[in-house]
């Protein structure tokens, strides 16, 4: 029987359409289609040896005189690093200068690696760069929200093979985040609790949607997952802002993130995916109701007219089945 | 210079990223990749002659004893036509029985046609089916919102070649629609006007984003278009619900919709696209602040981690340039 489930974070309903469900192993990725990549690509601006081809470097993780992770300005930035926030009014319309920051995190000197196959220590280096840039950029008083995300594969919106992720520091708080805050406050009003802490509690009790657990993090398929194998990685400790993560939590997250992505890689044949860190607005101090987390979305289905027309999602997989499938993948 | 523009209907900001802009003709569709289709496909359940292969028929447009458009139940419905709306509570989570209606509008007896190349009269037949089903299904007291949409091409979420669209009658009002209503009321509170009527007025005055005009409709690229060639087709007359459309408006819309899709077909080489009719909740009577319209989204770019992480869109085309390009395509 199909059912509607409510995403408790957004209050949006998701159609869990079991009538058209596939078996978990039918959601296959692209490994066979991926090109075999060279160790180093002389044409790739992100490869070791081509550092002069990238824009201004803002941060690096090094070992001796070798870099392990570099953060550089995006060559085609969606937002410009210089300038002030200026509004323009044109009749009933409003526009604003797109100032902020758009950086690329080059995750590895090598061209042919992917997070799922990196060592946990290498993933920790990437996360270290995320934390440093997040903490640094939130001090810019033009910045209201910072989005860190990764696009893996063409279906997830990238054509660059070299392992990289991106950071966008924005001069506004997106509506999506405002709506989440509003819903989190509403939940807090009603219960006195953080909606994420309560979600974690219920997931840990029920266990049916858990994919992986570590000392400081829990990965699970949300009750109202938007799409097959949509995943949330939640810190157990209540923190509103990503940069509040401690060193030991960061180490642990490196192991966790790699494990989750390796489960996708091996269990679903290297699917295209996106992940994103959902954190609070940069001007917000610690709150009792907001709790940062990571969302991972394997791009194994497509959105269509229904999603455009309703803003809702149809998920053709049962979250409990997807979770059991990934739980069983050993990495 | 990149800029942020606010979508006046949703109040969401869109990044118009001119630094990475392409020329309009670089957003090319798939015509060369599309298979050459037979006049009739004996394997296709939607083709004339295979009527017994489809589920229950709820409506048809006929001429003599030949059907021109048929509406049938979806074989794998996302919502079930039978049953009541029942809630289930599982700890902090909520679910609901997915009752409603999921129908397929078979737009033509032939397998090898597409809206852009149909006659205006044939498009009117399809719209006639939309209006009849909309008017009929809104009388079901379990239905809160009706979404009519079309997926054209694999990139837009369909694998069936036979020209068809879909209707989903839902037992809830999606959040997307609730947010639009809230914003429309806010605009009405402030100005005493319908935000869509005011948008139309400004577009008709400025002319720079108009793509096509007819007696009763105006097609234009929104000021804060979400993606390249994202289009709105607005009725000039203020109406909240799609089924308030008159016969003469329906005739005119057939000509308009076909013209807009033909401009995409010829100007962008038959891109994949979705369209959807954005109407008011079915329980809503006529209001001064809601105004139905059609949104058309050519799938010429992909959403990626930024859109997932922020809920915002990056548009790599300037709306005024996209509009000028489509305006010049003769059909």
Question: Please, could you describe this protein's structure?
Answer:
2 copies of one chain form a homodimer. Chain A has 6 helices and 15 strands. The first copy, chain A, has a single domain, classed as HIT-like (HIT family, subunit A). In chain A, a hairpin with a 6-residue loop joins strand 1 and strand 2 (13-16). The longest helix of chain A has 21 residues, at 247-267. The mean pLDDT of chain A is 95. Chain A has a 10-stranded antiparallel beta sheet, with helices on both faces. In chain A, 25% of the residues lie in helices and 24% in strands. With 331 residues, chain A is of the alpha+beta class. The two termini of chain A are 33 Å apart.
Short description:
Two copies of one chain form a homodimer. By secondary structure, chain A is α+β, with helices and mostly antiparallel strands.
Write out the CATH superfamily name of chain A. Answer: HIT-like
Helix content of chain A: 25-40%
Sheet having the most strands of chain A:
10 strands, antiparallel
The fraction of residues assigned to DSSP E strands of chain A is 15-25%
Briefly, what CATH class of chain A?
Answer: Alpha Beta
Number of domains of chain A: 1
Query: What is the assembly state of the chains in this entry?
Result: homodimer
* Unreliable stretches covering 5 or more consecutive residues of chain A: none
SSE pattern of chain A: EEEEEEEHEEHHEEEHEEHEH
Strand order of the largest sheet of chain A: 3-4-7-9-8-13-14-12-11-10
Which secondary-structure class do the elements of chain A indicate? Answer: alpha+beta
Output the radius of gyration of chain A.
20 Å
Mean pLDDT of chain A: 95
Spatial shape of chain A: globular
**Biggest interface: chains and residue counts?**
A-B, 79 and 79 residues
Total count of helical runs of at least 4 residues of chain A:
6
């Amino acid at each position: 029987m199909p059912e509607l489930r409510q995403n408790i974070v957004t209050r949006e309903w998701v159609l869990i359409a079991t009538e058209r469900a596939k078996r978990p192993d039918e959601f296959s990725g692209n490994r066979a289609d991926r090109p075999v990549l060279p160790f180093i690509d002389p044409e790739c601006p992100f490869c070791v040896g081509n550092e002069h081809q990238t824009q201004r470097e803002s941060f690096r993780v090094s070992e001796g005189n070798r870099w392990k992770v570099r953060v550089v300005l995006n060559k085609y930035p969606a937002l410009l690093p210089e300038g002030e926030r200026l509004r323009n009014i044109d009749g009933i319309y409003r526009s604003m200068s797109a100032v902020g920051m758009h950086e690329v995190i080059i995750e590895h000197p090598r061209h042919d690696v992917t997070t799922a196959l990196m060592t946990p220590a290498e993933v920790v280096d990437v996360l270290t760069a995320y934390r440093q840039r997040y903490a640094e950029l939130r001090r810019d008083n033009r910045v209201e929200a910072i989005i860190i995300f990764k696009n893996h594969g063409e279906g997830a919106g990238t054509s660059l093979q070299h392992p990289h992720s991106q950071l966008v520091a924005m001069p506004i708080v997106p509506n999506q985040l405002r709506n989440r805050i509003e819903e989190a406050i509403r939940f807090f009003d009603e219960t006195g609790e953080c909606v994420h802490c309560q979600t974690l509690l219920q997931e840990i009790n029920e266990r049916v949607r858990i994919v992986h657990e570590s000392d400081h993090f829990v990965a699970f398929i949300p009750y109202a997952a938007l799409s097959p194998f949509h995943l949330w990685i939640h810190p157990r400790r209540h923190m509103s802002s990503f940069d509040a993560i401690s060193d030991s939590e960061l180490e642990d997250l490196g192991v966790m993130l790699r494990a989750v992505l390796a489960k996708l890689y091996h269990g679903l044949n290297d699917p295209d995916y996106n992940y994103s860190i959902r954190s609070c607005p940069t001007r917000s101090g610690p709150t009792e109701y907001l709790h940062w987390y990571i969302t991972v979305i394997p791009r194994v289905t497509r959105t269509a007219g229904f999603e455009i027309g309703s803003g809702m999602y149809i998920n053709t997989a049962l979250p409990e089945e997807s979770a059991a499938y990934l739980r069983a993948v050993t990495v």
